[in-house]
Amino acid sequence: MMMLLWLLLFTLVGVSVQQCTIEGFQVLDTVESTEASPDASASITINSTFFNCLSTSEIIGIYSSMSVSVLFVLSNDLNTIREIRYNMECINDVWKRVGMVRAALRSNETRRDCALCLNQTVNEDHCTPCDSSCTGLNQCYGPMANQCCSYNDGGNCTTDCGMNREGNSTFHCVCSNFWTGTDCDVCDIPNCAACNDVGSECMQCQGGFQQNTIGVGCTEMSDDDDLETGVVIGIIAAICVMLLILIILIIAIVVSCHRRRKRRNFV
């Protein structure tokens, strides 16, 4: 029921992207001494913070919710490191607490594949994971687990990275295999002058290079290759000369025979 209420809240207020960053999270503004210790006179010193869960928004580097563990010591007991877990939600571009769990167990690493980080009933990271439809090269941005996208060059959510582009393991749009360049329109096969439409095979190599007998790339022509090419050209030229001489001889023989016949007829 609580999760349904949060989803409803996100749907109603989530018309515009909330602008909350990790840098905008103020730990001292979050932890209050009355929560950390029954002794109101004790002051707090933050030891460290650990983000158990971060749910990404439609802009990269901007988050909609988080689960964070705050480790601290009290002035009246400096030898004991204490921990409080908070669930935070980005509301009106400001991080607001929406729940607290004492003595929580921290997860081993930050979960980023989450639609929301407000679920206190699953795992120690409070992550509501992205739907299976987002598996692979897409990131869900919530509040629904099946809302997926990658991020374009401007860091904005997109479902179409563009021609010769695809999402990578960090959910950025990058050039697909075999393509490079600012616009991903340059074939990424070394020494290739022209590729096929998908950039996976070289159709024409640059000068001084020849297509591989195995594979799709180009290799530099060696002196042996030049020698072999020269020998082949020489053989072909010799054959052409011999054929030309043979043709000339045949023509000469035919002409000679024709003249002899004329002389006989004349006599």
Number of strands: 17
Largest sheet: 4 strands, antiparallel
Low-confidence stretches: 1-15
- Fraction of residues in β-strands: 25-35%
Q: What gyration radius follows from the Cα positions, in whole Å?
A: 37 Å
Strand order of the largest sheet: 1-2-3-4
User: Would you tell me the overall average pLDDT?
Assistant: 77
Helix-and-strand structural type: alpha+beta
List the main descriptive attributes of the protein structure presented here.
267 residues, alpha+beta
Task: Describe what you observe in this structure.
The protein has 267 residues and is of the alpha+beta class. The protein folds into 2 domains: 2-158, no CATH class; 186-238, no CATH class. Helix content is 24%, strand content 32%. It contains 4 helices and 17 strands. The chain has helices spanning 2-13, 27-30, 33-36, 223-266, and strands at 44-56, 63-74, 77-91, 94-102, 114-116, 128-129, 139-140, 148-151, 157-158, 165-167, 173-175, 179-180, 186-187, 192-195, 202-205, 209-211, 218-220. The strands form 7 sheets. The chain has a 4-stranded antiparallel beta sheet with strand order 1-2-3-4. A hairpin with a 7-residue loop joins β7 and β8. The longest helix has 44 residues, at 223-266. The radius of gyration is 37 Å and the shape is rod-shaped. The termini are far apart. Mean pLDDT is 77; it is low at 1-15.
Short description:
Helices cover 24% and strands 32% of the residues.
Task: Give the arrangement of secondary structure elements.
Elements: H1 2-13, H2 27-30, H3 33-36, E1 44-56, E2 63-74, E3 77-91, E4 94-102, E5 114-116, E6 128-129, E7 139-140, E8 148-151, E9 157-158, E10 165-167, E11 173-175, E12 179-180, E13 186-187, E14 192-195, E15 202-205, E16 209-211, E17 218-220, H4 223-266
Antiparallel strand pairs: 1-2, 2-3, 3-4, 5-6, 7-8, 8-9, 10-11, 12-13, 14-15, 16-17
